[in-house]
Amino acid sequence: MEINEITGQIIDAAIKVHTHLGPGLLESAYEACLAYELRRRGLHVEVQVGLPVVYEDVKLDVGYRVDLLVNDLVIVELKSVEKMISLYDAQLSYLKLSERKIGLLINFNVTRLKDGIKRLAN
Which pTM value belongs to this model? Predict the structure, then answer.
């Protein structure tokens, strides 16, 4: 499956989850439901994947976690916040650390999920 197809499936699944649950729940609820929905669609989903920092050829576990890693290609960071701040965009610096090309930042605490989705490329 091509990366654009994967991101399309992720966005479609997130819209389905948001339509069913609505805004205002904890991030963990959306994470579990989105992971379930993506797996139901045949995608490989890893949850809370550790992401080490490599410094001078040494991998250091400093506590970074990717919310969802889909088909080992797309990083998905989930939020359920009233307002997005630039700090959340910085979380997608995980793209650089992981050497992945595409990331999605999805905030479920919005009226229309379309307004809460941001796609970033490395």
Answer: 0.90
